[in-house]
User: Which sequence fits this backbone?
């Protein structure tokens, strides 16, 4: 076994020297995201018990539980800390998981696919040395994040948020990041390549998020078997429990051991999952650019459309419980009194489509990003050498992303429509739900426009689009719960979209956003047509 880990320390120092700046940025950004808004929440709700109780009742409704998870707090124990953790911990755990998955796969299977691992192993390097170095790197990274986040919460000195609870909150999130990094290591061994490993990891993360929607509302004890459930089952700021942390840590060790067993028996560049054998001759549609690109993205597109449909259906399935919930709750009755012209489902639908539209945006950004990612890997070189023009290359990808954005949004719409129809005595019509959903499509096009500009003029910095997407999600979702400065809200394109049917359809705003998106696509095309090809 000593030979299998030979040169682990040397590899770790090399990886740390290469990644230190990125890891530092991630540590600071994730710590700020996890713990940087506690004082703002306290200023808004901590000094007004009525507002805090209104939030407690709001977050207890089925729609909020489906999105944020449950809380073990009662009305008497629902403090600012309990509300902050209830709002933040699950979505922050998702962000931690996504970042960890992307980093682990890029530093393991992607380097293996690129031939870097083969070169390293030509020296006296153990078979498990690189994996162990990555494990150490991820463990230390999340220790730093835990320390930074705890310190940030502590210096804000929010009443009711003491040191031990702050440490538990930060540790819960840090452990989620490390846990999903180790889960990604399993798929690194199973999958045939980095793309498949990434897809399987994100599919698993999405599956457990959707699964916990059902268990959190109907069988909370079952959430103990869900890795994402271990984030909020710590019941931080209520009755702090370290048991989920212990479970997550033990599970991580098991995943590391399993990854070791799989890797030491696996050939370099191979995977355990069987690959479907291709046809002896290519189909005629592969001779065209549309046919080739659709073939390359087929699994990605089908997977995302199915996921959007399921997300819409899961949200629609709770519409039948909302009337009973509000009718039994006096505070909720008062909250909905000023919107008595609309049903409770209509009011919640305007909020749910913020989340569904952001998911559709992630889908089309991932699709369009493949244009520049494949270019960086040199896979388009042979096609660029043919008579295919850059104009056709660029506009086909942009138009396809736009069409997929519309299809993805309708997939979520149909899922929501079919589910709510099966649980409501008087269901909403397909047109009502469609109007509430399609109004967000211009904002989705806006993201295509931003990414198009980056691809055309700053192809090495396309990752900026993900930062703006996270910013838009935070402003759109938490903006009403926190005192966000107006200038920050104005930078979020989703803030300009009317929340139909509660708000009137604003044709002027919709048209302007579409025109700006189209202008950015044209600007991106100008840069793409003139610039040199890029490589990694």
Assistant:
């Amino acid at each position: 076994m000593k030979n299998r880990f030979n040169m682990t320390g040397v590899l770790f120092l090399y990886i740390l020297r290469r990644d230190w700046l990125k890891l530092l940025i991630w540590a600071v950004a994730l710590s700020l995201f996890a713990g940087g808004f506690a004082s703002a929440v306290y200023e808004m709700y901590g000094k007004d018990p009525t507002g805090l109780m209104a939030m407690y009742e709001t977050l207890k409704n089925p729609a909020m539980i489906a999105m944020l998870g449950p809380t073990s707090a009662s009305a008497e124990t629902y403090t600012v800390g309990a509300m902050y953790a209830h709002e933040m911990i699950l979505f922050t755990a998702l962000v931690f998981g996504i970042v960890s998955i992307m980093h682990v796969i890029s530093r393991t299977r992607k380097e293996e696919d690129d031939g870097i691992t083969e070169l390293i192993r030509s020296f006296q390097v153990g078979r498990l040395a690189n994996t162990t170095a990555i494990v150490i790197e991820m463990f230390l990274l999340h220790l730093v994040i835990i320390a930074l986040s705890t310190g940030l919460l502590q210096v804000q000195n929010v009443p009711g948020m003491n040191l031990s609870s702050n440490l538990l909150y930060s540790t819960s999130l840090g452990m989620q990041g490390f846990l999903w990094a180790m889960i990604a290591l399993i798929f690194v061994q199973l999958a045939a390549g980095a793309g498949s490993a990434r897809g399987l990891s994100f599919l698993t993360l999405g599956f457990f998020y959707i699964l916990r929607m059902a268990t959190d509302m109907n069988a909370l004890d079952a959430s103990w078997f869900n890795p994402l459930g271990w984030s909020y089952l710590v019941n931080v700021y209520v009755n702090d429990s370290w048991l989920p942390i212990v479970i997550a840590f033990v599970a991580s060790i098991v995943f590391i051991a399993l990854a070791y067993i799989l890797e030491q028996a696996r050939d370099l560049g191979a995977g355990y999952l069987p690959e479907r054998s291709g046809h002896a001759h290519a189909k005629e549609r592969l001779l065209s650019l549309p046919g080739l690109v659709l073939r390359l993205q087929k699994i990605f597109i089908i997977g995302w459309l199915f996921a959007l449909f399921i997300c819409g259906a899961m949200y629609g399935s709770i519409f039948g419980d909302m009337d009973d919930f509000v009718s039994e709750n006096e505070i909720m009755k008062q909250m909905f009194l000023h919107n008595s012209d609309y049903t409770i489902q209509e009011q919640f639908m305007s909020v749910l489509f913020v989340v569904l539209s952001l998911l559709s945006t992630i889908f089309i950004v991932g699709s369009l990003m493949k244009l520049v990612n494949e270019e960086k890997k040199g896979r388009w070189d042979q096609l660029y050498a043919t008579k295919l023009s850059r104009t056709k290359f660029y506009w086909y990808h942009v138009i396809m992303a736009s069409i997929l954005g519309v299809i993805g949004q309708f997939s979520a719409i149909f899922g929501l429509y079919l589910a709510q129809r099966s649980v409501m005595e008087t269901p909403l019509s397909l047109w009502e739900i469609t109007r509430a959903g399609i109004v967000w499509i211009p904002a989705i096009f806006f993201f295509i426009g931003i990414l198009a500009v980056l691809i055309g003029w700053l192809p090495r910095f396309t990752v900026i689009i993900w930062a703006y997407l996270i910013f838009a999600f935070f402003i759109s979702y938490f903006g009403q719960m926190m005192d966000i400065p107006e200038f920050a809200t104005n930078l979020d394109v989703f803030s300009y979209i009317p929340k139909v049917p509660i708000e009137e359809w604003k044709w002027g705003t919709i048209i302007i956003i579409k025109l700006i998106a189209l202008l950015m696509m044209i600007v991106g095309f100008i840069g793409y047509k003139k610039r040199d090809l890029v490589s990694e």
Observations:
- Residues 390-423 form the longest helix (34 residues).
- The radius of gyration is 24 Å.
- The mean pLDDT is 87.
- DSSP finds 24 helices and no strands in the chain.
